[in-house]
Amino acid sequence: MTLAAATELATATNEHLANISNTLIYSSMAVYTLAFFAYIAEWLLGSRSKVGRTAAALTAGAKTKTKAKAPAVTVNQGGSTAVLERPQVVVRSAAGSRDVPDGPGAHGGDEQGDLYGRIAISLTVLAFLIELGGVVARAASVERAPWGNMYEFNITFSTVAVAVYLGLLALKKNVRWLGLFLVTTVLLDLGLAVTVLYTASDQLVPALHSYWLYIHVSTAIFCGAVFYVGAVATILYLFKDSYENKIASGGTPGRFANSVLDRLPASASLDKFAYRVNAAVFPLWTFTIIAGAIWAGDAWGRYWGWDPKETWSFITWVAYACYLHARATAGWKGRKAAYLAMLAFGCWLFNYYGVNIFVTGKHSYAGV
Amino acid sequence: MSKTTPATPDASVGDQDLGAAGSQLSTAPVEGPPNLPTLGAIGWARWFWRQLTSMRVALLLLLLVALGAIPGSLIPQSGTDATKVADFVKNNPTLGDVYDKLGLFHVYSSVWFSAIYILLFVSLVGCIVPRTWQFVGQLRSRPPGAPKRLTRLPAYTTWRTAAEPEQVREAALALLKKRRFRAHLAGDNVAGEKGYVREVGNLAFHIALIVLLTAFAWGQLFKSEGNKLVVEGDGFSNTLTQYDDFKSGNLFDTGDLVPLSFRLNKFTGTYETTGPNKGTPRLYQAAITYSEGAYGKGRKTLVKVNEPLEVGDAKVYLTAHGYAPLITVRDGKGNVVYRDAVALLPLDSNVTSTGVIKVLDGYKNAKGVSEQLGISAFFLPTYTTGSETASTFPALNNPVLNLTPYHGDLGVDSGIPQSVYQLDKSHVKDFKDAKGQELRENLKPGQTMKLPNGAGSVTYEGTKQWANFQVVQQPASGWALGGALTAIFGLAASLFIQRRRVWVRAVRGDDGVTVVEMAGLGRSESAKLPEELGELAGVLYDQSQTEQSTPEPQEAPSEGSEK
Ligand code: HEM
């Protein structure tokens, strides 16, 4: 076989793989859409329960003291033969925060709703696997990591975001309430990817061939996915917090707010969750920027040159550092810190979409 | 005790509740209201210093740095793209003037941006020094005893046992020490604290930031950056005079140049032949032989786009490449008067190139009079019929060299510096071909162009390649990397490790039975805290149950009764 024929054959295989990848991505969108409707069904059926836990906790019920507080943690069941009752740890929320129980989740305790919720999660798992297949096929077709342009970045990003969600679920974290919000944005992200951002598969220019690039971009995508989960929790925290405030100050929230927000975890839980998620990934984000600097040092002869992409990574980093500082500064906890977290995620988004599309810099040669 | 405080929770309320027990659990500066000073100048200075080193102002300065960095990413910067800045000023004269006055064309070296980060820097130092001392103090003192009411703490548990209070306290002390708590007996209770690494990490992180920033500034001041175009077979040694262009930081000294030399053996480039990215480089590398120091031994290596050659502080990057046709010029008598590879500058991504061949001395025209020759060269590495003025592919598939010779005075002796790639045509004349047109010819490798009337000839012998190398020296980048890595580890320790206190109080209750109370307190709420407390409580509970079955001889006054 001549060299030219071999090349042609390889090209044909790659095109075939690229087509498979496209089919898989479209299929995953179809399954995500089904999951989306299942989540909607869960929320709708869940609205049948009318318990109003938040209101109960914040109004009359609150006066009945410790009982209504955050759940007592039972510990150490380790086969003891002691006759006496084993000690139980009572957990109190920090001074100054409200004592509100977490909502039951989207299904609101409704059995049918719960069933739809489980179906939705199963469908999400299925869609995730299909999408993962699409990403892998794409990678195989271009014979490199699947993040050479915005289309590939988008499909990889949403796959990782869903993986983070499913991972947290697998770790038995209380995150089922994220499902609908996540799948909605994943659909938007994929829609954008296949329409506006689609780029035929191809290999990279030499400047993009570096294992530091692999480290840098893969951690950047992962950080983005986790920051995204943190941002959703922060937004929900802001809504839930105003909802609780309204009830605590004697107001009556609208029916929709009642139905939706009452089922979410307590604002304190959402806040804590958002903080943990953001704080946990912040060191990795720091590492991402450093890996990028090392790569830039190898590729462009300087490790830091205030290229727009570098600048916005730095701005994002500083914004998250502000958020972490704010949590340690009296008077900045709660809502103000949450606004900072939103700002920080806004910077991340701008760094991705804004800088790639509106600003020209050294990073823009990967093609939109 | 139930608190339903709405809206902004006030952390200080909680801290006061706990009294000394919650104090010194971190080294974060205590925030007071910014009340104005009453004492004269010293009072003001002190007040200013306290404000500058407070968390609130640190937060503000951090926000300002982020905000200040934004314009630099949206407005063209003279440091990265001077021509874009010039275009911008030409298109928007008034706005350009305003931007220029505000330093917006060089944000990251502007007065105001420097002012913000220097303030932040001072704040950082002013924050770290006292925090470090405070932390050393905390390491030398012992964790405070239990607050009066342990029930108020975030995690709490209690049980009754037949064991003696002293036994329980001893067991608790032993247990906490075994779990690497710093623990001691404090009256009727045992106090333990753990997780000091968090504070160490936090301080290390902030100190690493200082190292990183200093190293970055140092690198900027002492850096140097020069370019050198080298044709295959030629060499370069690292002295100022050999560079084509050279830039350096304010404190750079020519003696700082790393002694180093190298020779370009071969440049290899291969390109995508099909698809939308046709023509983009695939393989792109320069094979060189280099030696370190003045008399170093020659070593062979490859320099690629992402893989510079590193010698000491210096890095040698491959930044561009082009073609250098090998030209021989003969005079009317057939003597070789010029023979060299002439580097041509690429005009586009398919390496359509231009340049000039200058024969300055040695050439005599047909009449035997000394003259200078200037030959405009235009080069297409891949010539395709139908596209005579631009190459269609970057590789040497079908090279064609188009030459236009001129004779006369090139004006190089006039003292005005001239580009080697441009021809001053004011004192030269062209040659005429048989039809009286300007002489201009396309040559393939090996072909010769005759100058009319026995004026000599020009031969295109073949093609060499050249590579452009950028030699960059940025000292202290090792420090910057070290600072950055330390920062990550410090940060991880600071965010993932909990600093927490545990108290175990054991006293005899009113009915004579021992009551054990345990509580835990962390600086930030964490699910781990109650888990750990429960674990400790479980172990202690089991111990006090077994000890009770083998009662030890009672000893008189229990410490607990003092309280
Ligand atoms: C270059 C500027 C700075 C950056 C990027 C920065 C970044 C950070 C980050 C990311 C954290 C989170 C780690 C943690 O929560 O333990 C932190 C914590 C902290 N920073 Fe900074 N910081 C800077 C300047 C300062 C300054 C000037 C101060 C002094 C007021 C300061 C005081 C603190 C304190 C006390 C903590 C620990 C908070 C706690 O215990 O929760 N930082 N800093």
UniProtKB/TrEMBL annotation, chain A:
<dbReference type="InterPro" id="IPR017562">
    <property type="entry name" value="Cyt_c_biogenesis_CcsA"/>
</dbReference>
<keyword id="KW-0201">Cytochrome c-type biogenesis</keyword>
<feature type="transmembrane region" description="Helical">
    <location>
        <begin position="178"/>
        <end position="199"/>
    </location>
</feature>
<protein>
    <submittedName>
        <fullName>Cytochrome C biogenesis protein</fullName>
    </submittedName>
</protein>
<keyword id="KW-1133">Transmembrane helix</keyword>
<dbReference type="InterPro" id="IPR002541">
    <property type="entry name" value="Cyt_c_assembly"/>
</dbReference>
<feature type="domain" description="Cytochrome c assembly protein">
    <location>
        <begin position="147"/>
        <end position="359"/>
    </location>
</feature>
<feature type="transmembrane region" description="Helical">
    <location>
        <begin position="311"/>
        <end position="330"/>
    </location>
</feature>
<feature type="transmembrane region" description="Helical">
    <location>
        <begin position="273"/>
        <end position="296"/>
    </location>
</feature>
<dbReference type="GO" id="GO:0020037">
    <property type="term" value="F:heme binding"/>
</dbReference>
<keyword id="KW-0812">Transmembrane</keyword>
<feature type="transmembrane region" description="Helical">
    <location>
        <begin position="153"/>
        <end position="171"/>
    </location>
</feature>
<keyword id="KW-0472">Membrane</keyword>
<feature type="transmembrane region" description="Helical">
    <location>
        <begin position="119"/>
        <end position="141"/>
    </location>
</feature>
<dbReference type="Pfam" id="PF01578">
    <property type="entry name" value="Cytochrom_C_asm"/>
</dbReference>
<dbReference type="GO" id="GO:0017004">
    <property type="term" value="P:cytochrome complex assembly"/>
</dbReference>
<dbReference type="InterPro" id="IPR045062">
    <property type="entry name" value="Cyt_c_biogenesis_CcsA/CcmC"/>
</dbReference>
<feature type="transmembrane region" description="Helical">
    <location>
        <begin position="24"/>
        <end position="45"/>
    </location>
</feature>
<feature type="transmembrane region" description="Helical">
    <location>
        <begin position="337"/>
        <end position="355"/>
    </location>
</feature>
<dbReference type="GO" id="GO:0005886">
    <property type="term" value="C:plasma membrane"/>
</dbReference>
<feature type="transmembrane region" description="Helical">
    <location>
        <begin position="211"/>
        <end position="239"/>
    </location>
</feature>
UniProtKB/TrEMBL annotation, chain B:
<feature type="compositionally biased region" description="Polar residues">
    <location>
        <begin position="542"/>
        <end position="552"/>
    </location>
</feature>
<feature type="transmembrane region" description="Helical">
    <location>
        <begin position="478"/>
        <end position="497"/>
    </location>
</feature>
<feature type="transmembrane region" description="Helical">
    <location>
        <begin position="57"/>
        <end position="75"/>
    </location>
</feature>
<dbReference type="GO" id="GO:0017004">
    <property type="term" value="P:cytochrome complex assembly"/>
</dbReference>
<dbReference type="Pfam" id="PF05140">
    <property type="entry name" value="ResB"/>
</dbReference>
<feature type="transmembrane region" description="Helical">
    <location>
        <begin position="111"/>
        <end position="133"/>
    </location>
</feature>
<feature type="region of interest" description="Disordered">
    <location>
        <begin position="539"/>
        <end position="563"/>
    </location>
</feature>
<keyword id="KW-0201">Cytochrome c-type biogenesis</keyword>
<feature type="domain" description="ResB-like">
    <location>
        <begin position="55"/>
        <end position="533"/>
    </location>
</feature>
<protein>
    <submittedName>
        <fullName>Cytochrome C biogenesis protein</fullName>
    </submittedName>
</protein>
<dbReference type="GO" id="GO:0016020">
    <property type="term" value="C:membrane"/>
</dbReference>
<keyword id="KW-1133">Transmembrane helix</keyword>
<keyword id="KW-0812">Transmembrane</keyword>
<dbReference type="InterPro" id="IPR007816">
    <property type="entry name" value="ResB-like_domain"/>
</dbReference>
<dbReference type="InterPro" id="IPR023494">
    <property type="entry name" value="Cyt_c_bgen_Ccs1/CcsB/ResB"/>
</dbReference>
<keyword id="KW-0472">Membrane</keyword>
<feature type="transmembrane region" description="Helical">
    <location>
        <begin position="203"/>
        <end position="222"/>
    </location>
</feature>
